[in-house]
């Protein structure tokens, strides 16, 4: 919970006032005729496999290096200390096969590993950073920059700021773009680098110029990096038009990824900005270049014949430019989606499987490698065809102490539940996974084992304690519908909101998607928060799919449903076949009566069915019931079900298999089942179909022992909602703000003023509002000055009078406005206008409004135009009023244009 609250406070809009102001800079690409600079050169048979990709199923050194880089990063992120020896071995392995990974690169990688593992004392004792200082002459400018940070922060060495700045300055003078950006960011924070006299805008220009570099094959990637700076808006002000210009530039030079980014820009754009002609132009270019997959991926997707432009265009289904309400905060445009279409059949081998087999032979390999290898075998060969090999690999994972591997092995052993030894082994594995490794899901597995899966289930005396322990662990997802998710209130469901946030920060897939929806639904969400949760969604294909499902469910108009389907298609392009079933389900609901969409649904379901997804097979059978019997559909997928079938696939097969196969298929299904009413009913139906009344009754009986039963489902109430009845009242908004104030939250005082000074809220308390305003005014926080003044101005007259009896708020505002705060100048102007008794007061008000307007404040432009048009503070000046109003209109003030027209018509009348 505390992790969630810390992050939320860090990302609130109030905190944004304390951040540095991004630089307004238009660094635009040069005008260059389109050419294929970034397109890879044709493969030369004489080259080694570091420069030539092999066949689709061949593991090359290039692929090895890519997997090694990813594993070093992922294992370091997960637990650098636990996997320290293995990561060290991976670094050594990379240095042996990657000619571009020098001895110095390996040394920096080891330092990073020690840093992430918290082995600071060992780093100092080894003197590894001091040794690097002796080799500065051999370093690249990028390495000098990293070493500079070590000496600046005292990492593995005594701090030496002077030497750190010398290294930074040397790297910057050498043209290193990262060093230039570092200097620019330091300068933004008011920390000047000695000996660097260039203005901030020149430094950033030089940095961007250094990033762009020459017209070689890397220029497209570097141009895309500049585009990302304009998307993030940290160093330079966010500017989607500039970002698009750089993506377009990279696409024109042969960047497939950039061409896809241009397509995505128009797919995400508001109706006014969407250009379907340019979208199709760059879609065609993306297809010709191989579509935006990964710059180190294998053969080009589309150019190899896997997909044509027409097919890709049909999948995207883009032509929904009628909606003009995409201006709300949205995570969708920030997602980095690519294209990754799978074939109709699953491959039984691949480079990643070969790579895992190789690193599993390393003596330092942890049990996690064998767990991953087992999972890959089950995906490639099929969960039943690959079962024997996977069990052997998981036994090794258990021997090497991997908790998730223990859990996976236990679940596989449940298939052999007729053997008491297998059941005891599964019990022991799951118990050890909980007690030794803290795998919370294993508690749920033990509950399921005793409640549903053993032959003499339900063993309630054993199941109930594990169910209670799992509930107490807080690991279970919050079960809530899409519409209820957005309606959760801190005043009514703080526990559910806190749990969603905490589980999302733990990267639980469904909760990441759910919290991301709540974040983008909040109109006050900061751009930093949107970017953070977009990055969390990008980490997981499953999270993207869950997010797309919520987008579809939350679409409440035909136009929004069109956009949701458009986005769902793009997630499918990104994820491949894993999202085929869910896209097919959405398309059936969306417009299954359309013949082209119907054909697409059949193709999607066939792809998913070939991976053993029973829901896809069953849905395909029901959709085609007019032309095909269920037996025909089973015959098409019988082999796939036997080698790969999931729970529902096995249930679908029950009516069509021989008696000698039934018990085996049931045992397989039980090992995969979710211990809930739905799966228990499926098993009961299966035995009823086979005419076995005793076992059908057995599963109906098990269904009676699930928590809460199913009677209340008729009332549309969940167990979570029922529990709230006994939980007592939640703290209200004022209680929460007061707790935050006690925790020294700088924005808490402002929130308290908001709550207590607004008579339209139930929390209105004029006495408390006066006290909070007085404290805020007499102990000003520069970041909150304008916000507090705004609340003062909006407060009832009685509150304002009581505050003014004891303190003059204009003193605080004049100080901030004189220091250059446009918000403070605006609020001062408005307060003076509201309390004006003479023309001189109005003139002073106008002076501050014009100062704020001159600094780019939109509302100040409007109010200055209003004052000049009405002659408030100065003789009526229609031209001056129109000038301010036109500027306000240009940056989006909703009323400026109408007021400018009234001023103009008034002038004509006179």
Automatic annotation (TrEMBL):
<dbReference type="InterPro" id="IPR050767">
    <property type="entry name" value="Sel1_AlgK"/>
</dbReference>
<dbReference type="InterPro" id="IPR011990">
    <property type="entry name" value="TPR-like_helical_dom_sf"/>
</dbReference>
<keyword id="KW-0614">Plasmid</keyword>
<keyword id="KW-0732">Signal</keyword>
<protein>
    <recommendedName>
        <fullName>Sel1 repeat family protein</fullName>
    </recommendedName>
</protein>
<dbReference type="InterPro" id="IPR006597">
    <property type="entry name" value="Sel1-like"/>
</dbReference>
<feature type="signal peptide">
    <location>
        <begin position="1"/>
        <end position="18"/>
    </location>
</feature>
<dbReference type="Pfam" id="PF08238">
    <property type="entry name" value="Sel1"/>
</dbReference>
């Amino acid at each position: 919970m505390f992790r969630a609250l810390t992050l939320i406070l860090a990302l609130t809009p109030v905190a944004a006032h304390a951040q540095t102001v991004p630089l307004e800079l238009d660094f635009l690409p040069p005008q260059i005729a389109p050419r294929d600079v970034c397109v890879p050169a044709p493969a030369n048979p004489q080259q080694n496999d570091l420069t030539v990709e092999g066949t689709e199923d061949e593991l090359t050194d290039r692929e090895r290096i890519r997997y090694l880089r990813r594993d070093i990063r992922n294992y370091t992120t997960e637990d650098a200390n636990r996997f320290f020896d293995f990561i060290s071995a991976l670094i050594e392995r990379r240095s042996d096969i990657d000619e571009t990974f020098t001895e110095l690169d390996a040394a920096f990688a080891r330092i990073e590993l020690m840093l992430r593992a918290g082995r600071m004392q060992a780093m100092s004792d080894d003197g590894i950073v001091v040794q690097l200082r002796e080799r500065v002459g051999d370093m690249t400018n990028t390495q000098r920059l990293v070493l500079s940070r070590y000496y600046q922060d005292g990492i593995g060495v005594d701090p030496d700021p002077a030497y750190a700045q010398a290294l930074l300055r040397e790297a910057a003078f050498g043209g290193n773009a990262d060093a230039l950006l570092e200097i620019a960011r330091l300068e933004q924070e008011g920390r000047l680098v000695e000996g660097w006299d260039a203005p901030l805008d020149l430094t950033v220009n030089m940095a961007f110029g250094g990033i762009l570099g020459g017209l070689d094959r890397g220029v497209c990637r570097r141009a895309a990096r500049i585009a990302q700076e304009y998307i993030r808006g940290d160093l330079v002000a966010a500017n989607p038009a500039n970002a698009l210009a750089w993506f377009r530039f990279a696409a024109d030079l042969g960047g497939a990824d950039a061409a896809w980014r241009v397509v995505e820009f128009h797919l995400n754009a508001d109706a006014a900005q969407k250009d379907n002609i340019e979208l199709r132009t760059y879609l065609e270019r993306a297809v010709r270049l191989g579509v935006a997959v990964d710059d180190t991926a294998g053969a080009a997707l589309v150019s190899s014949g896997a997909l044509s432009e027409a097919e890709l265009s049909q999948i995207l289904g883009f032509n929904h430019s009628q909606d003009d309400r995409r201006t709300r905060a949205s995570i969708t445009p920030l997602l980095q989606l690519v294209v990754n279409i799978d074939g109709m059949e699953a491959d039984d081998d691949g480079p990643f499987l070969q790579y895992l087999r190789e690193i599993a032979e390393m003596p330092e390999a942890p049990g996690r490698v064998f767990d991953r290898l087992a999972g890959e075998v089950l995906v490639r060969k099929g969960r039943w065809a690959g079962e024997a090999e996977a069990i052997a690999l998981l036994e090794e994972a258990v021997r090497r102490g991997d908790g998730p591997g223990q859990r996976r092995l236990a679940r596989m052993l449940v298939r052999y539940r007729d053997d008491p030894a297998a059941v005891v082994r599964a019990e022991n594995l799951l118990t050890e996974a909980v007690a030794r490794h803290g795998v919370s899901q294993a508690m749920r597995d033990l509950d399921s084992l005793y409640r549903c899966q053993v032959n003499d289930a339900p063993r309630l005396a054993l199941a109930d304690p594990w169910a209670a322990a799992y509930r107490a662990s807080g690991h279970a997802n919050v079960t809530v519908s899409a519409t209820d998710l957005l309606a959760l209130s801190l005043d009514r469901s703080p526990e559910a909101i806190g749990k969603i946030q905490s589980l999302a920060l733990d990267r639980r897939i469904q909760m990441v998607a759910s919290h991301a929806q709540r974040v983008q639904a909040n109109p006050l969400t900061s751009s930093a928060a949107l970017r953070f949760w977009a990055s969390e969604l990008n980490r997981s294909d499953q999270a993207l799919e869950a997010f797309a499902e919520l987008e579809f469910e939350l679409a409440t108009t035909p136009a929004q449903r069109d956009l949701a389907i458009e986005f769902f298609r793009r997630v499918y392009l990104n994820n491949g076949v894993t999202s085929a079933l869910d896209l097919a389900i959405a398309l059936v609901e969306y417009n299954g009566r359309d013949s082209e969409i119907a054909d697409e649904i059949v193709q999607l379901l066939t792809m998913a069915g070939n991976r053993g997804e029973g829901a896809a097979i069953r849905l395909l059978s029901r959709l085609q019931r007019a032309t095909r019997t269920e037996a025909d559909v089973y015959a098409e997928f019988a082999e796939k079900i036997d080698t790969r079938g999931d729970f529902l696939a096995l249930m679908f097969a029950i009516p069509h298999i021989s008696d000698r196969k039934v018990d085996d298929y049931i045992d397989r299904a039980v090992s995969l089942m979710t211990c809930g009413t739905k799966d228990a009913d499926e098993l009961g139906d299966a035995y009823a179909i086979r005419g076995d009344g005793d076992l059908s009754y057995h599963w109906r009986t098990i269904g009676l022992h699930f928590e809460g039963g199913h009677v209340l489902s008729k009332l549309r109430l969940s167990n979570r909602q029922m529990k709230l009845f006994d939980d007592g009242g939640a703290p209200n908004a004022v209680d929460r703000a007061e707790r935050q104030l006690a925790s020294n939250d700088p924005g808490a005082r402002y929130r308290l003023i908001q709550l207590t000074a607004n008579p339209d809220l139930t929390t209105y308390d004029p006495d408390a509002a006066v006290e909070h305003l007085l404290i805020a005014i007499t102990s000003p926080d520069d970041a909150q000055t304008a916000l507090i003044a705004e609340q003062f101005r909006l407060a009832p007259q009685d509150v304002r009078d009581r505050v003014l009896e004891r303190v003059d708020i204009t003193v605080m505002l004049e100080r901030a406005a004189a220091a250059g705060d446009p918000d403070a100048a605006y609020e001062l102007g408005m307060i003076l206008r509201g309390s004006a008794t003479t023309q001189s007061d109005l003139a002073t008000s106008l002076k501050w409004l014009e100062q704020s307007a001159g600094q780019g404040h939109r509302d100040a432009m409007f109010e200055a135009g209003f004052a000049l048009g009405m002659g408030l503070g100065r003789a009526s000046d229609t031209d001056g009023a129109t000038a301010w109003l036109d500027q306000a209109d240009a940056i989006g003030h909703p009323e400026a244009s109408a007021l400018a027209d009234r001023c103009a018509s008034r002038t004509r009348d006179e």
